[in-house]
Every structure is written in structure tokens, then in C-alpha cells.
Amino acid sequence: MENTRLNRAIETLKSTGVRMTPQRYAILEYLLSTMGHPTADAIYKALENKFPNMSVATVYNNLRVFKEAGLVRELTYGDSSSRFDANMNDHYHIICRDCGKIVDFDYPPLFNVEKEAAEKTGFRVETHRMEIYGVCSACQEAKAI
């Protein structure tokens, strides 16, 4: 993982008055090092051996702090648990309908769609989200067996 991303994230938190605890550091480091889009429970399970006294509530509270500081996005798809993404660059997601795996998908941002929506509706557009659904290669292979 790129230490500069972690250091920038820590500086961002400190500049907003957030104190860095060992748990907070570990959660942030985990989020920045994973290419997945973990749930709070998955983060908790990944770190519980290192921090046996940490609760799932601690993970949720820290994710909220990171979200408010603009360091993570909360992804909500359907009825499943929220997932968290530390990639704050413009990108989209492709989601497996079978296993729920989420993969980043780079594509030029659809700013023209936002502009068109604003012009046609009179809304002040703040953001948009595009999701692509399908079946990942691992699930396809499992079904073929």
C-alpha cells in the first residue's frame, strides 16, 4: 500500500480535530490497502485478532468519521450491508448478482448526463451513481462445474 495515501488521510483527519487511535489507524490502513469493498463486519473480522477489545460499533463509528472527513464512500446496494470504498476518484462499480463481489470499473465520468439532467429538470445535480450488474467469472465457473 502506498504510505503517502495513508499519511495524507491521517493529516486530513488531524486537520479536522480527529485524534488518531491505534484502532482508527488500523481500520484506515485496512481500507486503503484492500482493493475490495468491505463491510464493517468484514473489517472487524480482519482486525479482531489484533484488537480483541474492539467492537463492531467501534468500526462503524470510525467509518462514519472517515466518511464525514471525505476519506471513504459508503456503498449501499439493495438490502445488503453497506460496503466501504476508500477509492475517492471518480469511478463506477460492477457487482456480481450471485456472490455480491464489487469491482471498480474505470470509465470517464458522465458529467454530460448530470448537466443534461439539471437542464431538463431544474434540479441542482450533486452527484450520480452508475452500477453494472452481472455474474463474475468465479461464479460463472462454479455454475459450469
From TrEMBL:
Cofactor info, note text: Binds 1 Mn(2+) or Fe(2+) ion per subunit.
GO MF annotation list: DNA-binding transcription factor activity; transcription cis-regulatory region binding; zinc ion binding
Family annotation (InterPro entries): FUR, Fur_C, WH-like_DNA-bd_sf, WH_DNA-bd_sf
Pfam families: FUR (PF01475)
UniProt xrefs under CDD domains: Fur_like (cd07153)
Binding site for Zn(2+): C96, C99, C136, C139
Main location: cytoplasm
Keywords assigned by UniProt, alphabetized: Cytoplasm, DNA-binding, Iron, Manganese, Metal-binding, Repressor, Transcription, Transcription regulation, Zinc
One record GO biological process: regulation of secondary metabolite biosynthetic process
GO cellular component: cytoplasm
Record's subcellular location: Cytoplasm
Cofactor names: Mn(2+); Fe(2+); Zn(2+)
Binding site for Fe cation: H128
Keyword Cytoplasm belongs to the record: yes
Its biological purpose: Manganese-dependent repressor that controls a regulon of oxidative stress resistance and iron-storage proteins. May act as a hydrogen peroxide and organic hydroperoxide sensor.
Family from the record: Belongs to the Fur family.
PANTHER family (alphabetical): PEROXIDE-RESPONSIVE REPRESSOR PERR, ZINC UPTAKE REGULATION PROTEIN
Name of the protein this chain belongs to: Transcriptional repressor
Protein species of origin: Paludifilum halophilum
